[in-house]
UniProtKB/TrEMBL annotation:
The keyword Signal appears for this protein: yes
Cellular localization per UniProt: Secreted
Name of the protein this chain belongs to: NodB homology domain-containing protein
Keywords from the named record: Signal
One Pfam family in the UniProt entry: Polysacc_deac_1
Stretches for region Disordered: 1-25
Species lineage: Bacteria, Bacillati, Bacillota, Bacilli, Lactobacillales
Entry GO MF terms: hydrolase activity, acting on carbon-nitrogen (but not peptide) bonds
Plastid recorded as keyword: no
Domain NodB homology intervals: 96-258
Amino acid sequence: MLNRPNQSTNNQQQNQTSQSKSTAKWKTYDDPVQIPILMYHAVHVMDPSETSNANLIVAPDNFEAQIKAMVDAGYYFLTPEETYKAFSENVLPAKKVVWLTFDDGNEDFYTIAYPILKKYKAKATNNIITGFVKKGNVGNLTVKQMKEMIAHGMSFQSHTVNHPDLSVTDKATQKDELTNSIDFLEDKLNTKVNTIAYPSGRYNQTTLDLAKKTYKLGLTTNEGLASANDGLLSLNRVRILPTTTAKGLLSKITTDNK
């Protein structure tokens, strides 16, 4: 979770989102498919006061270079629903796929990342701390902003209500965190939610037992390519650091899918 000064750079573009009405032909694979699930948090120019969160912040020009590199390399940007289909049926809509995920629901996803994503017609998912949205916290996305972005191919999934360490949270509280967050998102956004991103990547067996009653996919902070072999509720992700170059990113997301 990132605490940062409020920034607002309203640079929206009206390009249509790519793959919004996908005509992809899904191919079945013999070996378990691998999917790079990228993990971002914030996209903005880091303020000197944010040094403690430095590894969570990617500069806008670096982010744009990464998106452009993936587009130029022919990557297909997955939605949560497509990712579940890929893992559950062992199929892919293209040889090169990637799922862009952001944690925490920071406002710079709307003001900075979203215009870049629209420019390159790329899709992405932001995992929302719903309690922060409900309280109207400064620096977090609003329901209005999320609704606008959904119309352009973005999606919003759960990052719990209050961002607790689930690994040391009692069962009743965990249940509330997992169910109340999905209820809020589905009610306010009129959309289906199938994914939980565990706060700080921390969870336990109780978390997994509760999650499987409500969610189809669970995102960890464990480093690596994601595979159904890891369990659909404990998927790896590829962490994107401030120092990750576009070239370095492409090397991180190369899979063995054949």
